[in-house]
């Protein structure tokens, strides 16, 4: 029996073949994690990543754009590192032909540690420092300038010496927002890019290119979760039209590459993958046919859509109780791993699947219950009034579709430790489980070790315990 989730549907046989296989792999991985000791009383929470699923998504993305672009068109799919900033994930995607889009020195360091070449890396950020820009231009990393002041900094750096970096300007086509305001990046007042419909802005952008022959890219990103594909394509169409205008006025093909961002929304309501990359690529081709005729190289920056469906947080039910007649399962997964869902459940609802103490999908009639986290505040709830087989002490609650922006984005409420993250794949016959055996069907690899209490103390200034009580010396940093 497959685990049932919050939409009340049995996932078996109801979706596409790859979606059903992914759900089956997830069930097997939960069982294997319990059998192999990755989950249990002493390790009550882990993150699991489906390696086969990640590979499938990367292949689907490449195939979708290969199907609509002219032969020979240079296309770089750069994964938005912020979605899952884990070095082994970036290495896996790199091996699958996916580059990296970074937005900070930390993300750039992660991409470099994963072996992503500079030529397959793009730097986007609304607050790049001169040192960050200098490093990117020295390494040959593509840079998208966010605003006129940043472009002025790049002018100064380019005057110091030539750079192999492709450079562009990020624009805000101001085509409107979606259902989640915080993720709508093409509104009239979005903080990102040059607002094209503001008075004089479009002419400033065109003039900026005409005055700088080394500006060869144009970048826009309409938004993320909550943005319909029609609105995304409208933002791309506006950006394409601007590139055409720049090239016409320059009298040559100065803009040779369009970075169309990412933002494909994820279906969190079921295991079905909708919309697909193929569907989005077809929408783009219909809306902006000239984008795919071979005159422009393309860059994409997808993040959530590549990873979300391939990650699962699994947490042990430490206690089962009731309040006001409603059962409450108190688990080890809450605000520390699902911050967006806890603080904005209306925008970020997540499905929860119930497993028994052996990691098997839980049987039994659905019971309306709450699924709570371990943090010490009343709102730390993953699900409220959710119909699931009754979760009991020692069972496991699996929080689905959490491969992006969840367990890799730890929120240290109550100094709760970051959980371990494991990638899983089907083991070859006789290969064992890689973490103590016991299940030859699934093998695990450590992606990130669980945080120790010693590491928590170190992060909290443990080495400087006397800093505020031992006196200060003028002009020096720290305690004396």
Could you explain how this protein is built, in words?
By secondary structure, the chain is an alpha/beta fold. It folds into two domains: 17-50 and 308-413, Lyase, Ornithine Decarboxylase, Chain A, domain 1 (Beta Barrel); 69-302, Alanine racemase (TIM Barrel, Alpha-Beta Barrel), CATH 3.20.20.10. It has helices at residues 17-35, 51-66, 87-95, 105-113, 130-139, 148-160, 201-210, 229-250, 277-287, 304-307, 339-343, 453-459, and strands at 45-50, 75-80, 99-102, 121-123, 142-145, 167-172, 194-195, 215-219, 257-259, 297-300, 311-323, 326-331, 352-355, 366-372, 381-389, 396-399, 420-426, 442-448. The strands form two sheets. Strands 1, 11, 12, 13, 14, 15, 16, 17 and 18 form a nine-stranded mixed sheet that branches. Helix 9 (277-287) links the parallel strand 9 (257-259) and strand 10. The longest helix is centred in the middle third of the chain and has 22 residues, at 229-250.
